[in-house]
Amino acid sequence: MPLELTIRDESTDGRVTGETVVEFLTESITVEELIKSRVYQEVQDYNQRRSGVFTGLVRPAEAEPEERGFKLQKSRLIDWNEQYEIARAAFEKGQVLILVDDRQVDRLDERIELRPAIGDRAATSVSFLRLTPLVGG
């Protein structure tokens, strides 16, 4: 039975700015698998409706930032593989931080143990933080 993982996007002040749910077939994944699955799901969600604002981790080519995400100039399909490569590079450059149970993960090959919520025990918590570069630096 697949495990559902709720992934939250947070601002550096702790506000939740977005959420997505991704399913995994195993209880142990790598950070790379987490990023890939998240990006694949959000691109598939957008491509199915192909309108409105894209609320993904990274901005698609030719899209403009908007309050809730990124607005594409023309309705088109987004390439999930291209988005994944951009997201992976952002993680490797430290532009995107990932917290698992409030602990920062920093390697693509690092393993994450997924656990469902049972009774008082919380499910695995995953948060993505996009860092904004300072002006001039």
Describe the structure.
- The structure is a single chain.
- The protein has a domain at 3-45 and 79-130: Ubiquitin-like (UB roll) (Roll).
- Helices cover 23% and strands 34% of the residues.
- The protein contains two helices and ten strands; from the N terminus they run βββαβββαββββ.
- The strands form three sheets. Strands 2-1-10-7-8 form a five-stranded mixed sheet, covered by helices on one side. A three-stranded antiparallel sheet has the order 4-6-5.
- A hairpin with a 2-residue loop joins β5 (63-66) and β6 (69-72).
- α1 runs antiparallel to α2 (80-92).
- The longest helix is centred in the N-terminal third of the chain and has 19 residues, at 31-49.
- It starts with a strand and ends in a 7-residue tail after the last strand.
- The model has no long low-confidence stretch (mean pLDDT 89).
